[in-house]
Design brief:
With 142 residues, the chain is α+β, with helices and mostly antiparallel strands. The protein has one domain.
């Protein structure tokens, strides 16, 4: 085979493979509701497994911003299709942590994907969702 033709075919195959990867990338929009204070920072973490959920691995993506009204939207781009979960905390006083009362109940806003109705941090199974294409989820803060 002609050497130029060979390089052309290899380059074409690589380009086609890369365009397929980009075509599969998804965008996740996280809409947050019921923000009760206009101070501090909203923090959103996107994790892709139990280690990230349990704080033993870094989030796949994370973002944060001061609240501006009773709702907020965060967009995470170029995500591989797969299983994810979202954790949100509203560090209302800006001290870098989610404050809690003497019983351990959070005193600042928090929420999770799927809005599980539990009185504890939900399990990975309760909060996980499948992302195959562009998707939007709604999370209501508690």
């Amino acid at each position: 085979m002609n050497r130029r033709l060979h390089y052309f075919l290899v380059a074409s195959a690589l380009t086609a493979g890369l365009s397929c990867i980009n075509a599969q990338a998804a965008e996740l929009t996280v809409r947050i509701h019921d923000i009760r204070a206009q101070t501090g920072v909203l923090k959103v973490a996107l994790v892709d497994g139990v280690p990230g959920w349990d704080g033993k691995a870094a989030p796949v993506k994370a973002d944060g911003a001061p609240p501006q009204g009773d709702g907020a939207t965060f967009v995470f781009k170029d995500l591989a299709p797969g299983t994810y979960a979202v954790m949100i905390s509203h560090d209302e006083n800006g001290n870098g942590k989610l404050d809690s009362n003497f019983m351990g109940m959070p005193t600042e806003g928090y929420g999770f994907s799927n809005n599980p109705a539990v009185m504890r941090k939900p399990t990975w199974e309760e909060a996980r969702f499948e992302l195959a294409a562009d998707q939007a989820i709604d999370v209501t803060l508690r």
